[in-house]
């Protein structure tokens, strides 16, 4: 299996992704042929070799006729129509449209509007279409089977854009990387752009360390800014040494502490508070401690960047005076939340998929509970009805 790993040590943007692929062997002529299938006009895509802090890379240069494209106001439906009418491969169409939909959803949430009303700024829309379609088509041309990505670095400070001066990461970018590993750094400015975030979060199967592979090609895509570190996105392409299943991978932090002297009534409060803080899971395990005292092992699973916040809470709110933490790798199925109609009304379901096949589908308890209370019917009846609908959708 041929895989690509994007090392975002200096963030990522759409043009950096294109540059890294061309630096790794994708021919400019081949990329231009693919983008031409969109039937766009008044633009030019070039590439040039550059040095960033002594490291060589390729910079993708997109030239757009601003006078021509300033007259074109594009919304999501316009971009979807352009992609639909193109002669691109169907898989490239589908993935490109998905990336733009995620961009629109992020913008809509930030600006409290609908995805239909989200406006892709004229010249920026042209840049984004070339970046997005170029990245998807370029990866297909390089025959990449699966993509992985490092944790994102996002920079700090502010960025000036069409909406004014915004904090880094930009609100839309932050929405797009929700649930993914991310860290800030001392570099001032925007390292991760919305387009870069949308492409990599949509296409990547996992986020964490580089998978085991035999390296075949390496590429560096250059950004435009001059930073204190090399402003480059690195892509490593090779053959997977281990069979890589169609699951997502990520790194999580595991925090543990053993307690034998706390009022058991406090555990209910502890669990509720930590869940409200956004931890991924928390559970209690009985154990035998020194001097034959029964105790409880508190285990919290959270994002690595939340370790200090959760640890501070545990030390302040429990009787522990110390704890342990580590980083673990996690494999998970692709999960989505879907609203499915049942005889008692719509209920949310958690759907887990692998290679396009549903491997598990279950109704959300809170939704079933809400319906049971609203309609004054047994919770058991609601859950049984939901399970029967789930069986139909999974078969």
Automatic annotation (TrEMBL):
One of the record's GO molecular function terms: nickel cation binding
Keywords linked to the UniProt accession: Lyase, Nickel
Superkingdom as given in the UniProt entry: Bacteria
Listed InterPro entries: Ni_insertion
Keyword 4Fe-4S: no
Keyword Lyase: yes
Pfam families: Ni_insertion
Family: Belongs to the LarC family.
Protein name, per record: Putative nickel insertion protein
Organism: Desulfonema magnum
Lineage: Bacteria, Pseudomonadati, Thermodesulfobacteriota, Desulfobacteria, Desulfobacterales
């Amino acid at each position: 299996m041929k895989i690509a790993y994007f090392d975002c040590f200096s963030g990522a943007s759409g043009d950096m992704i294109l540059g890294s692929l061309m630096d790794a062997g994708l021919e400019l002529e081949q990329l231009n042929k693919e983008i031409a299938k969109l039937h766009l006009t008044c633009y030019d895509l070039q590439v040039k070799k550059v040095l960033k802090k002594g490291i060589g890379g390729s910079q993708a240069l997109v030239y757009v006729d601003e006078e021509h494209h300033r007259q074109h106001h594009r919304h999501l439906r316009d971009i979807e129509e352009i992609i639909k009418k193109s002669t691109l491969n169907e898989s490239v169409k589908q993935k490109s449209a998905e990336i733009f939909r995620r961009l629109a959803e992020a913008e809509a949430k930030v600006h409290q509007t609908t995805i239909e009303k989200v406006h892709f700024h004229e010249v920026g829309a042209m840049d984004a279409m070339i970046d997005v379609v170029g990245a998807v088509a370029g990866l297909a041309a390089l025959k990449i089977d699966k993509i992985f990505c490092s944790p994102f670095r996002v920079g700090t400070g502010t960025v000036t854009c069409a909406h004014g001066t915004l904090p880094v990461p930009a609100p839309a970018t932050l929405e797009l990387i929700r649930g993914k590993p991310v860290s800030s750094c001392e570099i001032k400015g925007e390292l991760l752009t919305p387009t870069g975030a949308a492409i990599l979060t949509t296409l990547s199967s996992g986020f964490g360390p580089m998978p085991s592979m035999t390296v075949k090609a390496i590429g560096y895509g250059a950004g435009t800014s001059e930073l204190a570190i090399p402003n480059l996105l690195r892509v490593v392409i090779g053959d997977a040494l281990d069979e890589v299943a169609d699951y997502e991978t990520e790194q999580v932090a595991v925090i543990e502490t053993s307690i034998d002297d706390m009022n058991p009534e406090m555990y209910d409060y502890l669990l509720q508070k930590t869940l409200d803080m956004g931890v991924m899971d928390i559970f209690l395990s009985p154990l035998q401690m020194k001097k034959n005292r029964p105790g409880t092992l508190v285990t919290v699973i959270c994002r690595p960047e939340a370790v200090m916040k959760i640890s501070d809470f545990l030390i302040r709110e429990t009787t522990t005076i110390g704890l342990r933490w580590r980083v673990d790798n996690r494999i998970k199925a692709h999960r989505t939340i879907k609203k499915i109609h049942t005889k008692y009304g719509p209920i949310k379901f958690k759907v887990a998929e692998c290679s396009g096949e549903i491997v598990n589908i279950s109704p959300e308890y809170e939704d079933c509970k809400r319906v049971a209370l609203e309609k004054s019917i047994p919770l058991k009846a609601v859950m049984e009805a939901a399970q029967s609908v789930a069986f139909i959708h999974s078969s």
